[in-house]
Amino acid sequence: MNDSQNHPYGGIPQASFGAPPSGYQPAPPPAPAAWAPPPRPGLLPLRPLGFGTLLGAPFQVLRRNPGATFGSALITQLTTSIVSVFVIGGVGILAFGRIDSALPEDRDAVTAGAWATVILASLIPIALSILGSALLQGVLVVEVARGTLGEKNRMGVLWKAAGRRLWPLIAWFAILLGLIVGALAVIVGVAVLIGLIGGAAIAVAIVVGVLGALTLAAASIWLGTKTALVPSIIVLERRGVISSIRRSWYLTNGSFWKTFGVLALVSAILSTATQIITTPVSFIGGLATSFLFPTGASDDSASFIAVTVATYGLTLIISLVLGSIAAVVQSSAVAIVYIDLRMRREGLDLDLMRFVEARQAGAAHEVADPYLVSSQRNG
C-alpha cells in the first residue's frame, strides 16, 4: 500500500497547500468553557438560592405535586374542622342545655361546670390539630427534600416517610403549645391579680397586660424564627427535639433577618390573598340574605335558614381550600429556607449534586443520603 494513502490529508502532500501568507498568525486555542452548575433536576437549583427563588419556590411545591401536597393539607384541615364542630358543638349543646333545667340556686354552679366541660372538650381538637400540623409539616419537608432531587412521590409514600418521625414532631409542637399557653397564663394571671386590688390598680393591670402581650409577641417572633427549622431537622436529619433546637439555632445564626423576612413575606402574601377572596364572598352572602329577607326570618324561616346555611357553607369551603393552600406554602417555605441555609453553610448543594450524578450513573445506592452527609460532617 502506498504511504500517501495513509496521509492525514487524504494522500495530498502538505507542501501542495503552499506556504502561509506573510503576517499569518495561528488562531489561539479555544478558551475552556466556564464552569456552570448542572441543570436542576427538580424543584430547586443545586446552588444557594436567591431571594426571588426563596419566595417563588414554595408556590411551585403546590403546583408541582398538588395531589400529595394540597390533598394532605385538605385532609388534615377537614378532619380537624369536623372533629371540632362535632366535639365542641355536641358537648356545648349538652352542657349548656342543663342550665335551663337547673334549679335557680344551682344555676351558677351548672353554668360554671358547663364552661369547664366545653374547655376540656376543646382539648381534643387542639390535640388533633397538633397531630395534623406535625404530620403535614413532615409530609411537606419530605416533598421539598425529595422534589429537589427530582423525585415526585405519591401521598402514601410521603405520609409513610413523615410517620417515621411523627412522635418527635408531635413533641415539638406540644412544647410550642405549652410555652404559648404558659406565657399567656402568666400574663393574664399577673394582670388579674393586680386588677383585684381595685382602684388605680385596674389601670396598672391594663398596662401590664398590654406590655406583656407586646413582649410575648416580640419573643414569639424571635424564638419562632430561631427555631423555625426544627421540624425540617427532625425529619431529614433524624435528630431528637433538643438536638434539633440547637441545630436550628446554629443554622440561623447570622441569617435571622433573611429567614424572618422570607417567612413573614410569604405569610403576608397568603393572608392578603385570603382576605381578598373571602371578604367579598362573606359580603355578598350577607347582602343576598339581607336583600331576600329584609325583616329577618319572618314568615319564611325555612328559606332564611337554608340561605344562611348555604352562605356559611360556601364560606367554610373557601376557607378550608385557602387554608390548605396556605398551610402547604408556609410549610414548604420553611423547608426551602432550611435547604438554602445548609447549602450556604455546609455545602449541601455539592452533596446533592453527587447524589444526582450517582443516580444518573445507576449507583445511587452507593451514595449516602445527601441530607445526612453534611449534617454528620458538621455535627
Percent of residues in helices: over 70%
Number of DSSP strand runs: 0
Rounded to the nearest angstrom, the radius of gyration is 31 Å
Main sheet: strands, sense, barrel: none
Mean pLDDT: 80
Strand content: under 5%
Q: What distance separates the N and C termini?
A: 70 Å
The total domain count is 1
- Shape descriptor: globular
Identify low-pLDDT runs: 6-17
Secondary-structure element sequence? HHHHHHHHHHHHH
- Judged by helices, strands and strand pairing, the structural class is mainly alpha
Number of helices: 13
What this model shows, in words?
The chain has helices at residues 51-64, 66-101, 107-121, 123-148, 155-163, 166-195, 201-226, 230-236, 241-252, 256-292, 301-346, 348-360, 370-378. It has 379 residues and is an all-alpha fold. The chain has one domain. The radius of gyration is 31 Å and the shape is globular. Mean pLDDT is 80; it is low at 6-17.
Features:
globular, mainly alpha, 379 residues, 13 helices
Topology overview:
Elements: H1 51-64, H2 66-101, H3 107-121, H4 123-148, H5 155-163, H6 166-195, H7 201-226, H8 230-236, H9 241-252, H10 256-292, H11 301-346, H12 348-360, H13 370-378
Helix pairs in contact: 1-11, 2-3, 2-4, 2-5, 2-11, 4-5, 4-6, 4-8, 4-11, 6-7, 8-9, 10-11, 12-13
